[in-house]
Amino acid sequence: MNIKSENMAKVQIVDLAAHYNAIKNEIDEAVMRVLSSGYFVLGPNVKSFEGELSAYLGVKHVVSCANGTDAITLSLMSLGIKQGDEVITPSHSFFATSESIALVGATPVFVDIKEDDFNIDIEKIEALINKKTKAIIPVHIYGQPCNIDKIVEIAKKHNLFIVEDCAQAIGAKLNNKCVGTFGDIGTLSFFPTKNLGAFGDGGAVITNNDELAAKLRQLRVHGSSVRYVHDVIGLNSRLDEIQAAILSVQLKYLNQWNEKRLEAALYYNELFEGFEQVTTPVIKPDRKHIFHQYTIKTKNRNLLCEKLKERNIESIIYYPIPIHQQKAFSHLNQNYDLPVTEKISKEILSLPIYPEITKDIQQYVVKNVKEILS
Ligand SMILES: Cc1ncc(COP(=O)(O)O)c(C=O)c1O
Fold first, then answer.
1. What domains, with CATH codes, occur in the chain?
2. Is the C-beta atom of 75 inside 6 A of ligand 1?
């Protein structure tokens, strides 16, 4: 969309149609091949996609599954996390991170975040550890790697598992190493709006541990390693062949797309330079941020969000209600001390970002943000 003129169409938060159109022929061909193969679930495309993704991430095993929520649930099941156990995780995330903990019967214990990058505050983890604590689930929020190297040290000291929620951070790196490969397990989501998105649901668990990988393969098909023989209770959580074929095509473009998102983020930062009503995202030198979201902070967030909507510009609040304040967890009754999480939930707003976004669109978005807030 060229939007030099003032009479423009809607600015979308992501443009999935533009994304598809850029590689339409390759995608169509891959889908048609699956349709004529007659093989639709956990077949050759799933196997090759898992192999390609493990090479891309530099990890030994990729176990694909039905979605990113199942990926976390399966991970916790494979680690034997159960009722009575506690898992430390940020309240500032998509609900699924903590929902998965509850699904295996364990209790999420919420930790606060840092205001500069919205990621888990490593200084606040150890105070929450007790005899019931079994694992930490850090989230690499918005595509920015958290201080996962430091979390590994804390986990080793206290003998805890780490499941890295990388749903928003595929290809993000800390010290040149992909997130998801620092802890025991990493989890991915291929929800369509993700940096690597399927045309439906999809997810994956990644690990360097052979034993965990074998367990995960069993758990994703009803706890079965041999057909109709069930050793444990599992899930039905499989990736289908069409999604795997589509993901294989897209994986070839992922680095290029992540670079374009980074370029777009840098351009937004440049356009906002000197405009004090908006705080732009930090880019830390030792890590590769893949900008799943471009999230700003402003004191007038609600006004900005409403007025952008009136001007046909989409923006999203990721997330308006912290998980510890959700009704679904009201029974937990923990003594919360999450001032940063609560503060930023009132100030954050994510602006349109996707690989195909043009400078014209970004200029238009920023011009409108400035007009509204000035
Ligand atoms: C941080 C985070 N964790 C988990 C999930 C769950 O993934 P899915 O929607 O594929 O179940 C998402 C997806 O939105 C997410 O952003």
1. 22-251 (3.40.640.10), 253-373 (3.90.1150.10)
2. no
